[in-house]
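W.,

You were right to be curious about this one. When I first looked at the sequence I had no strong expectations either way, so I just let the prediction run and decided to look at it fresh. Below is the sequence, 177 residues in total, followed by the output.
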Amino acid sequence: MKNVAIFASLGVALTAGCASNPDTQEGQLFTWVSSIEYAERICKTVELDDYATCVNRMLAVYQDPNPIEFPPEQGTSGPFMATLNGQNYYGWYRSQPFKADFRASNGRTTCRGGYNAFVGDTAAIFDVRCDDGRTGTADMVLDESGRNGIGTITLSDGRTGDLVFGRDALQGTPAAG
């Protein structure tokens, strides 16, 4: 019984350590993401005159959510948005315990990313390939709900961007359809 208590305490300590620093996402399993952080990422490419309206609209969506029930098999997939070089890329992600992938397009260029622990990927860092020849990586982390999240993308041409994914996080946006 003593061994069970020790292992349980160790598991709690390790989990708390992974989630205790909200200032960084690298290597974390999940983190706390505020409504304003989602809104800022989603509204990043909006014209300055419309920025406050966009943020306020997104905050209203989060404060008064319109919950939609999805079948359990759709609990690990949903809308995806990347912001790169001032352009939004919209698409879809799918996730399983040991592999995940996404596909997003800005209407001209499509980028795909994925990782698969079964073929040797040791971290949930997505390899990214765009149909215009760029490659790179995407680092994503779930929020506390386990169904939404944020991340960053870095491409071979030096450009970096933000990622947002999940049905709740992207409610009311073009990404949600």
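Here's what jumped out at me. Confidence is low (pLDDT under 50) at residues 1-25. And, maybe more interesting for your project: The domain at 33-176 is CATH 2.40.128.120 (Lipocalin).

Coffee later to discuss?

I.
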